[in-house]
Amino acid sequence: MSKLNLDRDTIDTCRELAENIVRPIQRYIDMHSTISIERATLRLLGFYGAWEEEGGMPYPVANIIIDNVDRRRLSGGIAPLLASAKKRNGRLNQEKMAEKIIRGEIDLNAVDDLSFDQVVDTLQPWIQEAANTVDRNKRKREEMRQRMRTASRPFKYVIVATGNIHEDIKQAQSAARQGADVIAVIRSTAQSLLDYVPHGATTEGYGGTFATQENFRLMRAGLDDVSKELHRYIRLCNYSSGLCMPEIAVMGAFEGLDYLLNDAMYGILFRDINMKRTLVDQNFSRAIIARAGITIHTGEDNYLTTADAYQNHHQVLGSQFLNEQLAKNAGLRDEQIGLGHAFEMDPSIEDSILYEISMAQLVREIFPRCPVKYMPPTRHMTGDIFFGQALDTIFNLVGALTDQSLQLLGMPTEASHNPHMQDRFWSLKNANYIFNAANSLSDEIQFNSNGKIMRRARSVLDTTQKYLSKIREVGLFDSIEQGLFANMPRAKDGGKGYDGVFEKSRRYYNPFSDKGKDR
Amino acid sequence: MNPFNQINQTGQARLIKPYGDRTGDGQVQTSFTLPMPASEEARVAAQMVAERMGLQNVSVNHMEAIDPNFTFFVVYGSVSFEINISEIVVPKLDYPLYDFDQINNLLQKTVGRKIVVIGACIGSDAHTVGIDAIFNMKGYLGDYGLEAYSAFQAMNLRAQVDTKDLAKKVAELKANVVLVSRVVTQRDEHITELKKFLVDLSQTEGVPSNLIKICGGPRINHTIASEIGYDAGFGPGTKPGQVASYIADVVLKQSSASGSNT
């Protein structure tokens, strides 16, 4: 299996360093909650409707409720307040109760405190309902994945991004018929900065389509149809990132998604979301994702769009170790941790293809059970679609050569516009050709034991160890502040969404986080 | 003398056509998708599309089903018209290209203090590739970024900077130069945001009146920039040294214009 003959001790040391770096962060995470976690909790408990606001835009009831709870009361969690209201108004379903709360007939700021057992007893039917839905979806997806023909690896992953969910479905089904195995619906630009999740089917978006629960349901149904037609299971991916990471995890669990983008640091670095908010949110969302049997994708590939891929690969590997550790803390299994990696090296560098092979093989060997998501060139795509196709072809060949599990197909028109129908067609035709024609290539290849590929891999691993040592010394929060990730410095208390983080009181209870279950 | 690539008697007109295999053949290739099944009818439809585009001698070289409802075509044809390139006028930035040391020395000698340059990727845009290439010490294509110049106090605010905040920052730091970048161009959002920044600047107190406003991005050029009210626009492939030279040139002109009364 191992072709790079990496030093196991160095890998173990990196894992230990990651564990040590994450430990104080995990303590912080465990002591805090966020408004988005409480909103996600409400959604799990059945409060997933929306009300028309004055402007005519639907605004989620979960937001309306949380916005109106006094922060001091919220520090014990929304669940105990809701339990108290439910106990007093026993026969109300969630919809009716939401209405009464929003109309002010039930004041969550004035409900009685219940004992822990009373809270659990009162909420039990709703908790059970949530667990049943999530578990039922998980079983259904597992069963479909097993029953239908499994695609050969790497899975071919393409994006749709029309802004209109109905157009997206058309394009997604078409891509599936051309050989795509995974469809990701790109979100509308900057949805990650909205502190609420839009509601209902949407037909207007910018650079993508809003992630809403109804859009998830529609796309899932469209892909289920085409899966049956092709006898091949088509997987669905969306984005649990940004200010609504926990809520979107819940939506994904409810609607049977297979993959969710979910990175512990992406939002901090690339969306300027507050680091504490993101780290607390990622933990809860990953716990839901773990239970739902969804696989996460992390976003290290993005680092290389701002930091040079040749100079800074240790940042990618370092972050992969950290993402792995944080994901494990949230209860994800290796098989659910799809770390991100990208083919982003400057094509003018001599032997750049060798170095790309080296890095792609490195991540496979260090994380052998993780379904790595291999990302295509974007930084060096110029609008020359013909050279773009050449880069994508080599990217596909490296994917086959290093036995990747999931290949996000590059588009020759990357950097120009959202993929047109024909762009996806070229791209899939390219991948179908390479993956078939080089099917057994990885079994046939060994590397020169003192050649450039192995030396490069060793040197990146060694640099990563030094890099992680430095982060352990400085601490993760301060490291981010100093720009040690993706050369993107972010202030500890800066960024968006920090006011949505709060310390849990001693009485804090959340039926869906592990800490709650232990009591 | 070839009739398609001629300079006329007065030396004025220069008429050209696309060049395929030989001068004047006017050959172009294009590709597109039609929402219909692959069929002989589809081939004719593709031919008609190309003819309506004005192509002559159309040849549908490739037809392939994308799926049961969509078909992809590669089409060749020739154009019948010529373009008179001597009539083309493109507003261009006119400035001397200085090298790294020249810029530092010239500004040091003439201005005697650091030129404050602020840069940002504005609006929701998170793509800092362009602004970073111009600012980062390391630079781009072997050319040092603005941060490396001793003549500049260069501050890159990077991604997703609100236009109002950027205008405030310009006023607060009494910036000499502001560089804004937009990579995302969905629905011409780049133009909207670039205009919005100019409005915000005009509504912010304390913005220096001789502020040099520069924009850049993959879909920006100097023509677009001038149209919407920037002093200069830089497109893809711009090296930091070009931007630095332009800044130096304008600053030197500004200081010689105001030199007598300061």
Distance between the termini of chain A: 44 Å
Enumerate how many helices of chain B there are, as a single number.
Answer: 7
What's the story with the biggest beta sheet of chain B?
Answer: 5 strands, parallel
Describe the global form of chain A: globular
Distance between the termini of chain B: 61 Å
Number of β-strand runs of chain A: 13
Major beta sheet, strand line-up of chain A: 9-8-7-6-5-4-12-11-10
Strand content of chain B: 15-25%
Q: Biggest interface: chains and residue counts?
A: A-B, 25 and 26 residues
- Tertiary shape of chain B: elongated
Secondary-structure content class of chain A:
alpha/beta
The count of DSSP E runs of length 2 or more, i.e. the number of strands of chain B, is 10
State the low-pLDDT regions of chain B, or none.
1-9
- Average pLDDT of chain A, rounded to a whole number, is 93
Mean pLDDT of chain B, rounded to whole units? Answer: 88
Taking pLDDT < 50 over at least 5 consecutive residues as the criterion, the unreliable ranges of chain A are 515-519
What is the percentage of strand-forming residues of chain A?
A: 5-15%
Write the element-wise H/E pattern of chain B from the N-terminal end onward: EEHEEEHEHEHEHEHEH
